[in-house]
Amino acid sequence: MDHLNNGDRLRIQFWGVRGSTPAAEAAMTGVGGNTPCIALNYGLEPVVIIDGGTGLRLLGLNLNSSDAGLFEASILFSHFHWDHIQGLPFFPPIYSEHARLNLYSGVSAAALEQILQNQMRDPYFPIPFSTARSRRHFSQVTAKGCQIGSLRISPVHLNHPGGATGYRIDSPAGSLIYVSDHEHGVSAVDDRIAEDAAGADLLIYDSQFTPTEYPNFKGWGHSTWLEGTRLAIRAGIKQLLLFHHSPSRTDKDVAEVVAQARQEFPATNAACENRVIFLPN
Fold it and tell me: Residues 23-42: what's their mean pLDDT?
């Protein structure tokens, strides 16, 4: 990972952008096939990671967590469906005695620890989470939010089976809001998200389905690019990134989705692996 001093800028890099399951087909390599994982770096502060999908493995390989001296990182989990946690057992820092990992979610600290332990328990995984050598601290992001370095973290309630938490992140350099694994259509929830998103520089939005596909998948907990553009307009967003792409959507398909979305909201792009955005840009 590029560790150059970016001053007081917020660096946002995408390491996984697919939803549901990884996609390894050649026609999808441009957008990328790993499941959700985003790394945030403000200046030289420790990295803050959103979600632990399969992209977390690649991110971990690019973090300097094995040298002598303490390495620190924070991970915000939106929820615990496989595509958002399956990278954690393959994240090298959890096995390093030099690593301190601060793990956050919308559930209690005890519940978070238990959920992550269960994922790495026989018969699912050979190495128990409890034996990993890193130092780990578990926290709940309550309605009041929390502070991680210079980043202010505010939870965003999402409509998703089993529950999910999005995050608004405000920094001295700008703000973003992460709305992945959300199904539009519940007015009270949608209205609150629009309030939470107001004025953000960047909206990262669940676009698993197209408007044509969506009627066949109501209740699955995902949204469309069209709803993303509507939220961006309503909340006064500066830039929209379509995220959580369907595992069946090719690079060509994603490009077509972006072209349609730009007719509604011109400042739209697709989240792609290795894409880097700076705030302010």
Answer: 97
